[in-house]
Specification:
This protein is α+β, with helices and mostly antiparallel strands. The chain has one domain: paralog of FGE (formylglycine-generating enzyme), CATH 3.90.1580.10. Helix content is 13%, strand content 13%. The protein contains four helices and ten strands, in the order αββββαααββββββ. The protein has a four-stranded mixed beta sheet with strand order 8-7-5-9, with helices on both faces. Helix 1 crosses helix 2. It is globular.
Length: 309
């Protein structure tokens, strides 16, 4: 590891009094970090076992368009609970992974592809922004799928399955935004208004701060308490990208492979805040490093805390 990276990580680990804390990250600058808060790299909440709705609408997907992966609505069963990250993975936590020699210490810049494009506006996300202690609670981007998986494995976890992520966002009865009440008909493709969405998620309206500190929008929490499931950054999951199946499924992990070689992304980032959380993103090649691509890790049991400071 380079001397510069070593110095940076020491700064991040010792920056408790310098960090600008987001909601739920202690008592503000100089506050303490508690397990389960934004500065706990393993903060996770249970996604219970059971049956839930995925997808929406009743029509089969259009085979012309792999980007339209949101139908039809059907039921999926998880036979075991998962503990999904309460927050998107934070930059300071990624710095810990770099310090351990488990994560890439040079994320190439500028990122390619992604909704923000190759030419970024003025923003708080710049080359190696994650190396700055005052950015420790920003989500880590731009990750490729293998880097996201490597980070989660270093934490002692894994990438969530598409079904686990969707249950965290939609609950058992198919709500189409994390904060909305359950719909009367989960197969209705039009339920869920876009009005006022930016009060619940980071829409990226401020060009100087395209991404917000993790957990900055508690009002947009999902049915089990997970934050930033919609907006802020997009999140890699385990599954290869493919159309939803038509039949009930048990513990689905997606196809073994796809002709397109693309993985599923969820959350839509700041560009897709007007979409329902039921909709997967247009899929991405595993080696694509889109600007908004981050991750939220999953665990098979309640994890031990790993505090930033």
């Amino acid at each position: 590891m380079t001397t510069a990276v070593t110095i940076l990580v020491v700064a991040v680990l010792g920056a408790g009094c310098a960090l600008s804390h987001g909601p739920g990250a202690g008592d503000g600058p100089g506050g303490t970090c508690e397990p389960g808060e934004a500065c706990d790299c393993r903060a996770a909440l249970e996604v219970p076992a059971g049956t839930h709705w995925v997808g929406r609408g009743s029509d089969p997907p259009d085979p012309c368009c792999l980007g339209a992966l949101d139908g039809p609505a059907h039921r999926v069963t998880l036979t075991r609970a998962a503990w999904l990250g309460r927050f998107e993975a934070a930059a300071g936590c990624y710095a810990r992974c770099v310090a351990a020699g488990a994560c890439l210490d040079d994320l190439p810049w500028p990122p390619s592809f992604g909704d923000w494009g190759p030419s970024l506006p003025a923003t708080n996300v710049t080359d190696h922004y994650w190396r700055r202690a005052d950015n420790a609670l920003l989500p880590i981007v731009p990750l490729r799928w293998p880097e996201a998986r490597r980070y989660c494995e270093w934490l002692g976890g894994r990438l969530p399955t598409n079904a686990e992520w969707e249950k965290a966002a939609r609950g058992e009865n198919g709500r189409l935004r994390p904060w909305l009440p359950d719909p009367e008909d989960p197969t209705d493709p039009y339920i869920g208004s876009v009005v006022g969405v930016c009060a619940y998620v980071n829409c990226g309206l401020d060009p100087d701060t395209l991404i917000a500190e993790v957990g900055s929008y508690p009002q947009g929490a999902g049915p089990y308490g997970h934050l930033d499931l919609l907006g802020n950054v997009e999140e890699w999951v385990l599954d290869w990208a493919d159309f939803y199946g038509f039949d009930d499924e048990v513990d689905p992990t997606g196809p073994e492979s796809t002709p397109w070689g693309e993985r599923t992304i969820r959350g839509h980032g700041t560009s897709g805040y007007n979409r329902q959380s039921a909709d997967p993103e247009p899929p991405a090649d595993t080696w694509r490093r889109g600007m908004p691509y981050g991750v939220r890790c999953a665990f098979d049991a309640p994890p031990e805390p790993l505090l930033l400071y």
